[in-house]
Predict the 3D structure of the following.
Amino acid sequence: MYHSQAPSGDKVIFLGTQERLLNRDDLGQLDLAVVDEFYKLDPSRQDDRSLTLNAAVYQLLRRSKQFFFLGPNIETVRFSSDSRWRFEFLRTRFSTVAVNTYDLKGLKSIADKEQRLTEEIQNKTNWPALVFVSAPDRANKLAGKLASAGTLHSFSSFSEWIDENFDAGWELSKVVGAGFGVHHGRIPRALASHFVRLFNTGELPVMICTSTLIEGVNTAAKSVLIYDKKINRQDYDFFTFSNIRGRAGRLGQHHVGSVYLFHSPPDQEAVEVEPPLFGDLDEAPDELVVHVSDEHVSPAVTGRIDALAKRLDLTPRELRLASSVGLEDAIALKQFTEAADRHREPIHWSGYPGYKEIEAVCQIICKVRRPNEFGVRSASQLTFFLNDLRSKRTMKEFFRGYSRLYTGEPSAKDGIFRFLRACEYGLPQLFSVVELFAARLRRGTDYTLFTAEMPRWFRPEALKNLDEQGVPVQISERFYWEGDTLATLIARLIEAAQSGNHSLSDFERLWVPDTLPS
């Protein structure tokens, strides 16, 4: 859901990420707010979007008559004695399936581990099987090794689709063709959703995944093979381990799940969640405090907000935008923007910027954030990708152009997907914060048009919305007509799939109906 989408009718369900909900000014009074995976409200879970989630949930709670929070394996929730909201915590240990655990941690060498993993995933009685690993690069390399070791289930149609729509030579094509799915934060949403659908139907018998599949995505896994004990570079805790283990088995399909442990599990501990918005707001982080409404403001909070507004020279509304990138980073952006102005860098523009104007802002951003956060090596490469993304007529052309220029490791070729994720959230906020400070220095500075189009990859909004529903832009852009709404484009796609339109391959004619409501 984009913040530009307007609700229609009296009965509306808003569904969105914390960032998108924070950008809406039409929520009004809500009958019910539902927050899934609410343990992410606790900053100790080390989710870098935790404070934004607290701010969004705070806005939902103050507008909602009722609320319902969902989360697994939580023992207690801490909140202040003078809490602004009344809570009732319901804990249950009920499980819909039984789980058998097999301890393989006695395997000492890497070769032994890889051999045992290969044996277990080639055993059809374990299918469909999830293999949990620590990070995207690790998932890509392991998937490549396993695919080279042998084909589980030939899936040439999907492999050919990737070759056609991204370009030949992508590691992902070989992996999928051998019957393996891959799911992590760098995989495009439409592809990741299709991987899950095919995994749940048994067409992809094994999925190599990171924690992105463990949190909030329903699968029909019979077995879970916990191959690594880390998320990125840190050992996971008992809470995360329990979530991973809980993916084995599925009510109505696999009443007994299997878990294979390649490492010792973490020590058992009670899981306690302590969200800042449930505590004393006088002690809450600045990024949450700037979102506090008048009815909850204390003199201490007012003093903190006034000090921040003075330090950054921003209004309270602008402070809330600055908090989306972190207030310390916003202060640094202010300093570098002022320096760029003194050096007469071309940061003062409006409408569609030229190449040098984009680069000037990217140079500021990459002095505050590491370029690899955006899937690039430098501010210059970030500029090139942004300009290329908006210049290419189709996403297919964009991916093919990138593929021909790429010279790195095959397993890291999907770094471009990290750049596209950064365009959806991260980069637009950083550009907007730079704009705040640049506009203070010269009137008429306005990045709005550029930052509004960046989250949808400079494509018509209907195409990006469909991508999030599961239809890749490479498919829908063939059917887009100027002025299409989401509804008219969906109708045309469904008609094409049902009529045997030759603009869709046989594989795509199955993909589209699986994704869209008929």
